[in-house]
Amino acid sequence: MSDSDPHADDVAQYLRDNPHFFQSHLDLLATITVPHPHGGRAISLQERQLEVLREKLRAHELRLAELLRIGEENDAIAKKLQRWTRQLLLATEPAQLPDIVVDGLHGIFSVPQVAMRIWGLRDAYSGLECARPVPVDVITLANSMKQPFCGRNSDFQAATWLPEGGADTRSIALLPLRKGVDPNAYGLIVLGSADPDRFASGMGTAFLERIGDTASAALSRLVE
Fold first, then answer.
1. What are phi and psi of 118, to 5 degrees?
2. Is position 140 within any domain?
3. Across residues 46-74, what is the average pLDDT?
4. Three-state DSSP class for residue 83
5. Do 157 and 138 form a contact (C-beta atoms < 8 A)?
6. Is 67 within the bounds of a domain?
7. Whole-number Å distance between alpha carbons of 115 and 5
8. How much of the chain, in percent, has pLDDT values that exceed 70?
9. Does 85 reside within a domain?
């Protein structure tokens, strides 16, 4: 009987519907052989079942190892986020916050390129580095963003804020800053890397959203 034999499906269905069939036909079970999946020799049906179970176990072990790896990575990122947030909370002067945000992203999160601009600052903070002029197009882009952007650097204007004007920036992440539920942004954080896959378009943005939310809450003290 070949795989294309229409009766093969009937036999398979019968065995599925009668799982105790081989218990009453043990002599038949002992004589059935099937090809070995990795060789030409024949093995018993019981041996093949054991091989299938081993393959499933190996697949489960690989999946478990992958889940453990992801869990460890997420735990490490969460610890970094906690450490960075603590630094922001310990700041005694609001004017220190922009440097804490940028330096933390550099040092704690190991982001190679970081820049930030804030508009609508209070007069007392208008002399900060982050208060440099921002093109209207960038403000419009920030206002339109509902979540962080990750992807290739397609000559974003904001990339020019990065070191060397973003000349070697191949991938980029843009994090809008918002005050509470205000739909309009008051600033933008730019993360860059020479690695085109560091901020790939398909990557998750959950932790970037947390970073953006935390920075937004801390830096809101500087704006009107």
1. -130, 135
2. yes
3. 83
4. helix
5. yes
6. no
7. 67
8. 86
9. no
Domain count along the chain: 1
What is the Rg, in whole angstroms, of the alpha carbon atoms belonging to the chain?
A: 29
Name the 3-class secondary structure at 56: helix
Q: Please enumerate in sequence order all residues whose Cβ is within 8 A of that of 173, keeping only pairs 6 or more positions apart, or say none.
A: 148, 149, 150, 190, 191, 192, 199, 208
Dump pLDDT digits (tens) for 11-43: 778 878 887 776 676 666 666 666 666 555 666
Pairing of strands 113-118, 171-178: unpaired
pTM value surpassing 0.85: no
Residue ranges with strand state E in 63-161:
113-118, 149-152
Separation between Cα atoms, residue 1 and residue 16, nearest integer Å: 18
Q: What are phi and psi of 176, to 5 degrees?
A: -70, 145
- Whether residue 60 lies inside any domain: the answer is no
Q: What six digits make up the tokens of 15?
A: 């065995």
111 close to 77: Cβ distance less than 8 angstroms:
no
Give the range of the structural domain holding residue 126, as residue numbers without chain letter.
Answer: 94-222
CATH at 212: 3.30.450.40
Q: What's the rounded Cα separation, in Å, for the pair 139 and 5?
A: 67
Closest CA to 204 of 173, 165, 167: 173
Q: Which pair of tokens denotes residue 194?
A: 């020479």
pLDDT (average), residues 42-53: 71
